C-alpha cells in the first residue's frame, strides 16, 4: 500500500513541556484512521505538524513522499492542494455566503472564473449533503450540523486525496454526529479518500474507522482495530473502552 502520511521520530516541546518524544506513525492510501489519546497528549498539535502549520523540534513528516518541513514554498503549495482540512470549529468566514466560503479555495488556488468556482462550490455542497438553498445563506443561518457540512464541502473544494478532520463530531447532537460519520465514510469509499481524523468519539471509532492509532506519553502506544486495541493493557485505554461498554454493545463488528 502506498504511504500517504509518514511521521518519523517527531519530538515536540511546547512551553517547556515535552509533548511528543519520538513519535512515529504511517498511514496508507485509502485508510480511514482515527487518532485518539487522553486530553493534552498532543493530537491536535500533531495534526498541525503534519499539515505544515507547526514545526516540530526534531523528526520528519512526509506527505505523499514529500518532506513537509523541507518543502519549498512552491512544493508546499502543490502539497496543500492535495489535502483538505476540517478544523474543530469549522473556521468559516461569517461575512461570506456559504457558497463563497466553499469557493474560497478555488478563488485562491485556481485561475477559474468566479462563476465557475461558485458552480463547483455548489456541487461540493451537494456532495456534503446540503440542500441547494443553503448556498446563498450565511453560516450563522445554519445549524451546527449544517455548518460542519459546509466546512467539509470547503475541505473538499480542491478535490483532495487526503482529508484531515479535527474532532469532526464535537458539538453535534448524536443523530447529526452519526449522520456526519456516515457521510465521511461514504465520501472516503466513493472518492477513494484517505482520512485522518482526531476524535474522542467512541461511536465514530466503532462505526467508520479502519484503524485506530493511540497516543500516550508522547508516543504511539498502539495501532489497530478497536478489537485489537482492547487487548492492550493500558489504564487510559481500558477506561476509554469501559465508557463504551457502559453504553451498550458496539454498532459495528470491529
Ligand atoms: N501553541 C502552543 N503553545 C504552548 N503549548 C501548546 C500550544 N499548543 C498546544 N499546546 C499544549 O500542548 C499540549 C497538547 O495539546 P493538543 O491540543 O495537541 O492536545 P490534544 O491531545 O489535542 O488534546 P484534546 O484532546 O484535549 O483536544 C497541551 O498541553 C497544550 O496546552
Shape: globular
Any low-confidence stretches, pLDDT <50, length ≥5?
Answer: 249-254
Estimated share of beta-strand residues? 25-35%
Q: What distance separates the N and C termini?
A: 21 Å
The CATH class of the largest domain is Alpha Beta
Identify every distinct bound molecule in the structure, by name, code or SMILES.
adenosine-5'-triphosphate
How would you classify the helix and strand content by structural class?
alpha/beta
Please give the number of β-strands. Answer: 10
Q: What does this molecule look like?
A:
The chain is α/β, with parallel strands linked by helices and 254 residues long. It folds into two domains: 3-82 and 161-247, P-loop containing nucleotide triphosphate hydrolases (Rossmann fold, 3-Layer(aba) Sandwich), CATH 3.40.50.300; 96-159, no CATH class. Helices cover 38% and strands 25% of the residues. The chain has helices at residues 43-50, 73-80, 98-109, 114-127, 144-155, 174-191, 202-208, 226-229, 235-247, and strands at residues 3-14, 17-28, 32-37, 58-63, 66-67, 83-86, 162-166, 194-198, 211-216, 219-224. The protein has a six-stranded mixed sheet with strand order 6-7-8-3-9-10, with helices on both faces. A four-stranded antiparallel sheet has the order 2-1-4-5, covered by helices on one side. A hairpin with a 2-residue loop joins β1 (3-14) and β2 (17-28). α3 packs across α4. The longest helix is centred in the C-terminal third of the chain and has 18 residues, at 174-191. The chain is globular, with a radius of gyration of 18 Å. The structure holds adenosine-5'-triphosphate. InterPro entries: AAA+_ATPase (IPR003593), ABC_transporter-like_ATP-bd (IPR003439), ABC_transporter-like_CS (IPR017871), P-loop_NTPase (IPR027417).
Amino acid at each position: 500500500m502506498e504511504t500517504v502520511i509518514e511521521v518519523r521520530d517527531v519530538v515536540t516541546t511546547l512551553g517547556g513541556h515535552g509533548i511528543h518524544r519520538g513519535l512515529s506513525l504511517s498511514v496508507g492510501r485509502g485508510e480511514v484512521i482515527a487518532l485518539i489519546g487522553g486530553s493534552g497528549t498532543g493530537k491536535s498539535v500533531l495534526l498541525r505538524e503534519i499539515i505544515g502549520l507547526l514545526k516540530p523540534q526534531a523528526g520528519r513528516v512526509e506527505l505523499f513522499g514529500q518532506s513537509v518541513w523541507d518543502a519549498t514554498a512552491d512544493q508546499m503549495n502543490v502539497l496543500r492542494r492535495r489535502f483538505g482540512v476540517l478544523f474543530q470549529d469549522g473556521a468559516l468566514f461569517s461575512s461570506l455566503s456559504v457558497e463563497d466560503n466553499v469557493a474560497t479555495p478555488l478563488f485562491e488556488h485556481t485561475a477559474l472564473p468566479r462563476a465557475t468556482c461558485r458552480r463547483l462550490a455548489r456541487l461540493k455542497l451537494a456532495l456534503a449533503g446540503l440542500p441547494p438553498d443553503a448556498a446563498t445563506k450565511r453560516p450563522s443561518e445554519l445549524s451546527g450540523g449544517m455548518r460542519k457540512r459546509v466546512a467539509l464541502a470547503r475541505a473538499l473544494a480542491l478535490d483532495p486525496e487526503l482529508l484531515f478532520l479535527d474532532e469532526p463530531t464535537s458539538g453535534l447532537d448524536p443523530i447529526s454526529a452519526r449522520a456526519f460519520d456516515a457521510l465521511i465514510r461514504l465520501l472516503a469509499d466513493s472518492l477513494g479518500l484517505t482520512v485522518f481524523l482526531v476524535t474522542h468519539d467512541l461511536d465514530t471509532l466503532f462505526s467508520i474507522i479502519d484503524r485506530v492509532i493511540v497516543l500516550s506519553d508522547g508516543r504511539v502506544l498502539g495501532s489497530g482495530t478497536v478489537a485489537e486495541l482492547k487487548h492492550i493493557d493500558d489504564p487510559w485505554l481500558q477506561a476509554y473502552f469501559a465508557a463504551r461498554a457502559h453504553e451498550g454493545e458496539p454498532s459495528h463488528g470491529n
